[in-house]
Amino acid sequence: MSGLWVFVCGPSGAGKDSVMNWAATDLAGRNDIVFSRRIVTRAAQPGSDHDPVTSQQFSRLIGDGGLVWSWEAHGFHYGIASHYAPLVAAGKIVVVNGSREHAYSLGSTAQVRIVQIVADPEQLATRLEKRGRDAHDEVTRRLARNTQFSDLRADCTILNQGELAVAGQQLVDYLVDGVRLTSLR
How far apart are CA 97 and CA 94, in angstroms? Predict the structure, then answer.
């Protein structure tokens, strides 16, 4: 039986990392659902969910077949290590913190599901400003970019506006009960 890739995406500030961390903690006892780590050409920061590499290391990984997925967003290169592919082949669900642009190009397939985490524009702006990682003009660009993906077709959309546990539980429920059902549509 073949497994599935679940790409979790959404606008900057929607809380993807927080929702995914909540779900990963809740599902820690399950061996059929794996949360992948990203490889990114960005330095690690407190709470980072990625493994930092240089641009040269990233290029080598691509050339050596070390990445099963790769994309570029916000001036950085992102990738998912190829060692996750055998897990999908073995029937596991591998959850990826991805990019909307990359997910948009993939679409839902027999082995790929798209989960979008969203929040209203005011919430996004507040979270991005609070995060303090980007200058004000970059926050404005990130918010303006959201209109490019208004027609992204997701198998599951989670509104992360209130308690983190609510959004986290929605992701857990989708991964445990809903992900395989979407293939029956």
Answer: 10
